[in-house]
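Annex B. Sample input.
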Amino acid sequence: MLGRRPDREIEEELAFHLEMRTAELIEAGESPERARERAMARFGDVAEARAHCAAIAKRRERKMARTEYVEDLRQDLRFAFRTLVRNRAFTALALATLVLGIGATSAIFSVVNGVLLRPLPFPAPERVVHWGWGWAGGEPSGALSAYKLEWFRERSSSFEAVATYRSFTQGLGTGPEEAVSGLRVTRPFLRVVGHPLPLGRWFTAEEATPGGPDVVVLGHGLWQARFGADPGIVGRDVTLGGVPRTVIGVMSPGFRFPQSPDAGDVFVPLRLEADPQDEGHNHSALARLAPGVDRGRASAELTTLSARFRDAHPELMGERERGMGLISYQDLYVGSLRGVLWILLGAVGLVLLIACANVANLLLARTSERQREIAVRSAMGASRGRLIRQILTESVALSLVAGALGFGLATWATRALVAAAPWRLPRAEEIGPDATVVLFTFGAAVITAVVFGLVAALPSAGRGPMIQLREGSHGTPPGRRLRAALVTTEAALSLVLLIGAGLLISTLLELRAVDPGFESDGLLTASVPRWPDRYDSDATLAAFESRLLDRLSPARGDTDPSSGGSGAGPIQAMALAGNIPLERGWNLPMEVEGRPDAREGDVEWRGVSPGYFETVGTPLVRGRTFTAADDADAPRVVIVNEEFVRLYLPDTDPIGQRVALGRFRGRWIHPEFAGEPAEIVGVVADMRELSLRRDPKRTMLVPRSQAPSSMRSTPVFLLRTARPGAAAATLRRVLAGIDPSLPPPTFRPMDEIIGESLARERFNALLMGLFSAIALVLTAIGIFGVVSYGVRRRTREIGIRMALGARTRDVTRMVTWQGMLPVAIGLAIGIAAALGLTRLLQTMIWGVSATDPVTFVAVTAVMATVALLASWVPARRAARAEPMRALRQE
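Annex B, continued. Sample output.
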């Protein structure tokens, strides 16, 4: 009968149209017979009419279905929000869990998006690559000499442009100097970065060659702030670093060079002198692929050219040198941070999965409590799909609210992450919520809702109404095995996170126990933020250092007024150096004189003043330290460390041996190094010159007065003191007396610098520890909730057992064991997973194996203890219940 209804409607519709058309024709003057014929001719094709009417009927039905669906959805949403408001405890716990998971995941994703996924600020950024000098076993990321850069640039055809750059800071103007940061760049730089100038022009070939006119291109921000965006600035002169330069253009607005984001105030020509005798690898090369050339073809061309270069200049390539290669600019720019960020995103993703499992367990328990309601709905005609849709609507509504709150948490957490990061995150100013992050956040919320909503809905919606009504609250709850599986999943994921955090914490502890090779306690460092341009002169700098050391010499008993005239000043020892310990300096080649069997090698080079070793507390092993007599006119002398002796002079007395610093394969890398070799006059204990992670490197120290001119940088001050405040005041007073124009120095205790050197490890351990702690708490709550729910469902059973004589400890043991069984399975799975996944942390750990058994055992014990407590508490509560009260409960 129901199947014939559409046909009957079509017949009625057809008859209606025939009657209407006939009446219209009669009114128009046609006879009834003629009108009937013409109406039949109009609607004579019954099949066509039926199809037309059927289409109308279907459209009407679809419209009614859409109306019904919208109405059902409105009712479901209203019911879902009413239910969530009514169950405040459940809603609060579920929201808190989801907000933590979604917010933390979105915060880390914001950083990943800003650093790794967002395109670099160049047109066609995928075509920008880095040239690097490759060594066996490493990426071609090393810097280049000017000669190698020019040799390969002239002979390559796969690149549209190749440029190099170097940042600098100088004073602007002739009055009170304003420090500006800029870039020295070669002429092709603008073609590589692809930013046309809105005002003026770029450097000409003449301006980019040595001896060319002094010109400058202003950064857009400096042009606006300092010169009021005056278009007439082009052609005028400005003084930069004491040198008058003609302004020839203004950089495009918003341009920021990622490698040196703060160096965009001014741009001046970098004039390379391609001397094959200058082997200083000091130039980073940036290139843009030519149209139609891919990275594979360009890389193959560089490999071919490297072979040609080896044939042409065998003296410039060692056995381990592979030659020129390329990597993407973003790989160079991001470096090891790429792996760290993906690992952190993966870790926080595990937290989100644990949060989902926890909420799914909550919803399963709550859905089980609503069996009667679901059964009544089913008995009244609600289909399984309709029931699932109702539960899904509740979970989606819950997740959307959690997504909105999580996005707010992510916005705050992202700012906190960027501020707390121990390294400058690339493009940190661009990291933050954007459309991609919003889409990710709410996409994660919706996917989460669907996943845990289906997990909660399917077990209950698939049971018949009579079964649910008959079982009431005493039957086997739906999804019991699924809840156990979720607990197993939570335990496994939490254990993986906890083991990862344990390895990172072990790394931090191992590094804190490393002996740096100097006495950091009582060592104060100071540096002048910016030296005036006149200190570029060797003579001016040498005179300044001599006066400073003379005035602060502890032998003179220089005192602070607060010392009461005791004659013992606050500075016990004082020295100058080109850089502080743990801060990388120069790396230079050298040769040992008269030792053809001693292989060539690079050494860490340090320029220090007399008193350096006494100040930093590094013991002298043999020989002597530097004295004031080791000046520029005296014979060259050096002091080496024990690692140098072990590597180059293992079978002879190093004192008196001679080394040629800056000599490579029988020739000097720069004319400044040429001269008599230096005599080794002392050997000192090894220091961690680069970082606490790195073993002591072969190191050579020379007097600052004998350092080559190009390497004699402005000094940092090292003070040995028991009274840092008084020592700082003394240094400020002396510096002001020598040169009142010097900015006040910045002071940092060496203990603080060591702490900062461990900041990355501490940050990684803290973040991973935070994630694992959240995961552990969520897992404990999940175990507690599942065991508590099981106890509540088995109240009568437990009452009967106790009424029949079961002891409290027997009931406690039974319930606890049943709660721990899925946890034990999860721990076994988690250990197996961690054995594979912790290898991804290899670059983040130090001094500990990725499969360290101590960490695995300790973390598993902690996890098992927390799970045992989470199971024991509800088990103990159930065992203490009165049997008669338990039997009376429904």
